[in-house]
Fold:
Amino acid sequence: MSLILCSKYLSTGIKSLIIFAVLMSSATITYAEINSCYYRGVGVNYSDNNNKFIVPAGTVLDMNEVLKDIRLEKKGDFFTVKDAQGRPLYQRLYDIEVYTNGYIIAKQANSDTPQGDDRKAIGIKANNKGDTSSNYGLINPTGKLIYDFKYQGIDLVDDELVILTTQYQGHQSDTLMTHDGQVIYPAKSHAGITNGADKQNTAVRITAIHYDTESQQGYFQVDQNDKSGVINQHGDMVVPLIYDEMSVMNDTCESVYDIDETNALKVRIDNKLGLIQPNGQWSVPLAPMQSIIYFNTQTFTPFILNHIEASQGEVDSVYWRPQEKDTIRENLITLKGEVLLTSDEPIKDLRGNFYQFSKNGKVGIINNWAEIILDANYDRIIVKPNQKFLVERAGKLGLAEVDQSGNALIVRRYFDTLQPAQSVDTDDIRVTEDIITWNEETSEFEAETGLDQYIPFPDETYNKIGEDDKQYFSSNSITNEYYGEDTLNIYIASSNKQYGVFNIDTVLIPFIYDSIIDVNGVFIVEDSGKYGVLGVNNNVIKPIIYNSVQDAKNALSEVR
Structure:
């Protein structure tokens, strides 16, 4: 089971933020939905039931703010719609929703004393007596009752269209209508408005999924007879009603109006899966053994999907994904199917906004926008907690650092061995200040002059392996991402069997020792078979006179 955060117009037409758990392969069908991508400037201006709905940001709480020819008055548990002269038009209303274009959706009780379902709806304990009413009606800005109070749900799509939900043979069923009563889909409506035609024989689910501002076309997903398709706002079938499953990929409409101006639906028929746009154009044609999943989150721009191609496996759901060992390649694509990047192996989440991709047997790093920030020139990428990435290339190890632009990674040096110093307190780094050291002769701590001269890296550590590498620049600064704090990055490294310690671009202990290990915040160094203890600033804590690491540890414990 997956937890999904979803923002949609519910079956009564008000936009609400809800969290719900859904089994990915068998989601509960909610009828008469309006996906956020269909927004055309019509929203809820007022709702009288804030316990049931979360009022959207920017909502005006004055119920008459947008009304012109009619007014709303509340008395007790109910509302009354009055005309400009104050004459009542509709009484005993509740579950009021006033839209920004002046339309009103509401329920109407059958008597002034709420009973049965009416009592439940307004929060009064039911007494199981009297008549009931739990259906909605639609009133236009002039006070005309467009649709009577007999619908299970009403969704105001825009200034022209509405989705009506009725009960049909024990199931909810939808009809797409105009405000003046014209049936758009299905032609044989369940809504009791059939234009002379017989009622449809099966239940229909209609979901407003996308409005294309460029073509000024609205698109609706239709689910009927266990098949799915897409119609436009005129009722024309633009995606055939033949698919076993259909799932909207961008249901919060993030980035659609800024970048893609589109949406896309993942569809399955038998064991083939594809990605199709609401207008019927294919982004990824139907094929077996392929999967389409989200790459980045819906808060990122542009909206990016991962198209996975596999060598084997049978697609049995739109949520199917092949086993990692069966993956041939992964393609990061836009909703229109434009390929942003191809990886020969499964893309690996390294940490935060960084991902490993593969090309020609080598690995590199991309960000959440599928932009290369370190090209695929490396044999492996090593991830350590709270540290910058280590990379291996041609048997050497390097440190992936942020380049001068702040928008990409670069490897400036390579070493034979390279590892973070785990136990060093970096607050003690004081390269140009006085350093406290232990004097063996006086058995006292004394102040010495700190290191005030530059200690160079060995010449052979400078990057000659990748000096001709292509340098990439991303559109987003890496410095805004968490990428290993500099103060935490102290490393023990070796080159030509000579060990040293460095922090970013500063050598702290010169590369002249046979071995170095960090113990309890200091370094035990080896020189010609003898061992001593140095501080992080190259200050001598114990001289290099001991015959073993253990002897140096013992001497260190005596000092402390």
Q: What stands out?
A: The CA atoms of residues 153 and 284 lie 35 Å apart. The two ends are 55 Å apart (CA to CA). The first strand starts at residue 2 and ends at 9.
